[in-house]
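Could someone model uridine-diphosphate-N-acetylglucosamine with this protein?
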Amino acid sequence: MKTIVCVVGARPNFIKIAPIMRAISARRGISARLVHTGQHYGSDMSDSFFEELGIPKPDINLEVGSSSHAFQTAEIMQKFEPALDSGPADAVLVVGDVNSTIACALVAAKKGIPVIHVEAGLRSFDRKMPEEINRVLTDRISDLLYTTSEDAEENLIREGVDREHIVFVGNVMIDTLMYNLDRAVPAVETLGGDQPLADNFALLTLHRPSNVDDPAVFKLMLEAIAEISRSLPIVFPVHPRTAKSIRDFGFGPILERSAIRVLEPVSYLRMLGLLRQCKLVLTDSGGLQEESTALGTPCLTLRNNTERPVTVTDGSNTLVGASPETLLTEFGKFQAGLGKSARIPPLWDGKAAERIVDHLDGWLSKNARP
Ligand code: UD1
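Reply:
Sure, complex below.
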C-alpha cells in the first residue's frame, strides 16, 4: 500500500482536493493521509467545505491560523514536519498556490519525499503577487507536475523543467463543479427569498491584497462597482480580508448608497448556485475565472494579469485591471450584448482527478522509495 500525504490549507484548496480524495479512495493500493494546515479556519472559510464536498475529516490539523506571510509559512513548516513523520508518506501532494502549498512542499523536498503539484505551471509573471512566488518555488521543487492547460506546460518547459515530469491532466476545480452542479443551492435561497434579485444580478468577489489593501485603489474600484450596481444589482459575498479593509477604511457608506447586497462568505454549494444564476461575474479570484469559463458566464476580472490565460483566450473572461474607466467600458459592452464567444478549454471535463490517480499509481510503482 502506498500512502500519499495530501495537503490543504485555504478555501480554494478544499475544492481542489475533494475529487482527488474521492479518486484515491476508489483505487486499490493507494491511500491518503489528509493534513489541514489551518490557514483558513472556522465554519464559513473551512468546515462548510468539508461537509458539503464530502471531504474526509483531516487526519491532522496544524491549526496555524492567520499571520504575516513569513510567520504563517514558517509555522506551517515547523508543524508539518512532525506530522509527516507521524505516519507513512510515499509522496506529498499539494494543490494550488497558497502559503500552505509552498510550505509543505519545501518540508517534503528537504526530507527527500517526492512532491506532487496539482495545478502546476500557472504564471501571472507578476512577482508582486505572493501566489506567484509560491507557484514558481513549488514547481521548482516538485517531482511530478500536473497541469490544467497547455500554456502551463510551456511555462514549465521554458523554466527548464524536464518534459517527463509534466502531465497535462485538466482541471480538478472543474471536476468539483461538474460533480456538484445538480446540488447547487438556488440563488433565491441564499438571497433570503428575494426573487427579483435572484433573477437579475452580477456576482462580485474581491480579496487580492493589490485591490483591497490600498485604500486609494479600493475606493475607486468600489465606487465604479457601485455605479454598475445601479444598472445591474450586485451580490457580494465578502472575504474576511476585504471585510476588514471596508471597516478600517470606512467604506461602508459607499456600499450603503449602492445596489450591492453584502453577504458573509458563502458555502461552496451556495456559491455554485450564485455562479450558475448570475448574469455576470466581477472578480479578482483565480477560481472564479475558471468556474465562470466552465459555465460560459461572462466574467470581468479586476486584475491586470491572469495566471489562467486560457480563460481569456478560450473562455468567457476579460481582464479589466484596476482602472474604473476600463471596468465601466467593458461593462457597457456586456450590457450592449457585445460579449465574447467562449468555449470550454481542453480536458476541463470533470475527469482530471481520475487521470491524476491513474497516472500517479503507475508513477509510484516505478519510482518507489526503497
Ligand atoms: C489566501 C491565499 C490566496 C487565496 C485565498 C482564498 C496565500 C498567500 N493566499 O489569501 O491565494 O486566493 O486564500 O481565500 O496563501 N481570515 C479570516 N478567516 C479565515 C482566513 C482568513 O478571518 O478563515 C482573515 C484574517 O484576517 C487574515 C486574512 O483573512 O489575516 C487573510 O488570510 P490569509 O489566509 O493570510 O490570506 P487570504 O487573503 O485569505
